[in-house]
Amino acid sequence: MCSWFGFCGSCKPNFKSCRSRKSTGDLTMSSTESLAMEETEKSNSLQPIERLNVDGFLRMVGGFGKFQIILDIVCCIIMCPFTFHVLIMYFAALQPEWKCVENSTVCLLNGTFTSENDFRCQIPRSEWEYMKPREYSIVTEFDIYCDRDWMIYMTTSILFIGWMFGAIFIGWLADNYGRRKTMLLSIVMVLTASLIAPFVNNIYVFIIFRFIVGFFIPGGGVIMFVLISEIVNDKYRPLAGIILWVFFTLILCVMGLLAYLIPKWKILFIICTAPFFATLPLFKFIPESVRWLRLKGKIEEALEIFQRIADWNGRKLNPNASLSMVQGVEHSSNPLDLFKTKRMAIKTLIQGFAWMVNGMVYYGISLASDDLGGSLYLNYVLVSLIELPAHVFAIDFSNRFGRRKTTSISMILAGILTLVVAFIPKSHNEFRVMFGMLGKMLITVSFDVIYTWSVEIYPTNIRSEAMGFLQITSRIGAASAPWIAKAVKVIHNTLPFLIMGVLGLLAGIACSILPETKGQETQETENDVTEEVFFMDEFK
Predict the structure, then answer these.
(1) CB of 159 within 8 A of CB of 211?
(2) How many helices (H) and strands (E) are present in the chain, helices listed first?
(3) Where, if anywhere, are coiled coils annotated (predicted)?
(4) Collapsing DSSP states into helix, strand and coil, what is residue 4?
(5) Alpha-carbon distances, residue 484 vs 157, 333, 423, 478 (angstroms)
(6) Chain centroid, CA 510 distance in Å
(7) What are the residues facing 52 on neighbouring strands?
(8) What is the pLDDT of residues 360-418, one digit of tens each?
């Protein structure tokens, strides 16, 4: 009677042991079979170890399989409450109309008036009243008007200022202590600050908590994008990243609907913060970045994650494959590495300028959507919805034409369309809305692709530092957006779109001289950087 025995499943052969029908003792292998097993083990041990980098392992386990898709979905859910708090002040800081109180002997105006009518600034506060209840927004809650209007803009700007300061710290933290730990810290801090903020009774304390939220938001957005980008291959990197931005767009639309249905800023804050509680259990699924682990010499941990990815994707690891060590990393990264060489400095300065303009124009058009004419809520949703086709275009164009061309051309076209809006009379609202939406679509294409381009253009050992710095420049632009969209138009109503249009043109032209990264191996250290083409060869 014959039986089959397995030894080490996938890596060792099965051997057949036979016994007579009369045998009742333990089954044993014959001497011939024993020798065969020893020879096989010896042969396997003599096979050379194949040392691969992360890209090699991703080709083995699947560059964008079931594991990466689920990871993308989990990150989208985790990003939900972060997204709510980016533009929540657009609704939580609305300025309601006002009217004179009944029987006033000082305020004799009839009807209701917008905040742009400054007659109320010349009369006692007791002579006029808001058309909305106190719980409507922070404006009615803290009675912000006239010479205190700057507080309204500051509640949005301060988040981006916090984002600006937090980006470099969060980037440093992620590069030196890991992407995963940094994300968890950010979730806890934004959750805590967002829950406390609606219950403070002082506008200055509220602004401080908005700063804290902004400080830790990069850990839930940019670091998440970096983590996903580092765990998929080159071909699917734009798709994996843009899935996040598609979800970002849908969340913005949902927030517009929530704000319309819930005209009470404190309740809106609490509802937009609640999803954080669902993110903590999901966080267990998120792995550490395999590129970061390899960079830090934690090869065994990286291999365990690759095995996990292989299991989910239905692939098998080659038992003779090993993850190669990264050479030339002897110190922790720091921001000065971004300017270490002339080429690196040029890349960093141009990318920084492009990110600043993207932040300014992207958020500026959203915040100026009420100036396009028509319904405040409808315009906000329309300007957000136009991002959906932009995400699709970004995936196709970045893979077809490259990261550089797509970013440069889309910024130039966005600048032109924004300039057109500046010179369309307000009596033609439909054209202002149409060109404004097209401008928002193109700047979204640019913003989508520049994320992928920037991740690829910097090596792993300074990637989070670089993304942190670029976030700083982007937040400078975003922090200026409320002032450009709202305050500058007091000088002249064409200035907001004029400023955004000119800067969009300049940034698009500047980006055209940077190197292309499409189809290139992911750089791990500065030593991996090959000769780069900085000029417009592909445009000739």
Answers:
(1) yes
(2) 21, 6
(3) none
(4) strand
(5) 11, 35, 16, 10
(6) 23
(7) 323
(8) 998 888 777 666 666 778 888 887 888 889 988 988 898 889 999 999 999 999 999 99
Q: Averaged over 20-40, what is the pLDDT?
A: 45
CATH dotted code for 49-96+132-329: 1.20.1250.20
**Is 60 exceeded by the pLDDT of residue 299?**
yes
Rounded-to-integer distance, Cα 16 and Cα 187, Å: 56
HSE-up (13 A, CA, CB side) for residue 94 = 26
Dig out the tokens for 474 from the structure: 């982007």
The answer for residues whose C-beta is within 8 angstroms of residue 98's C-beta and 6 or more apart is 112, 113, 115, 120, 128, 129, 130, 131
Dist CA 304 CA 299 (whole Å): 9
- 124-136 per-residue burial string, b: 16 or more CB within 10 A, e: under 16: eeeebbbebeeeb
pTM value?
0.72
> What are the boundaries of each domain within the chain?
49-96+132-329, 330-526
* Cα–Cα dist 212/222, whole Å: 17
Q: What is the pLDDT of residue 469?
A: 86
Question: Which strand (E) or helix (H) includes residue 51?
Answer: strand 50-52
Picking from 452, 500, 417, 35, the residue whose alpha carbon sits closest to that of residue 235 is: 452
pLDDT band at 14 (very low <50, low <70, confident <90, very high): very low
Say whether pLDDT at 221 is over 60: yes
Question: In this structure, what DSSP letter does residue 12 have?
Answer: S
- Report how far residue 514's alpha carbon sits from residue 403's, in angstroms, rounded to the nearest whole number: 10
Span 266-289, pLDDT tens digits: 999 999 999 888 888 888 899 998
The predicted-structure confidence for 466-475, as pLDDT tens digits, reads as follows 887 887 898 8
The fold for domain 330-526 equals Growth Hormone; Chain: A; (1.20.1250)
Closest CA to 402 of 466, 450, 471, 355: 450
Residue 329 has pLDDT above 80, yes or no: no
Q: Is 133 helix (H, G, I), strand (E, B) or coil?
A: coil
Which DSSP symbol is given to 486? I
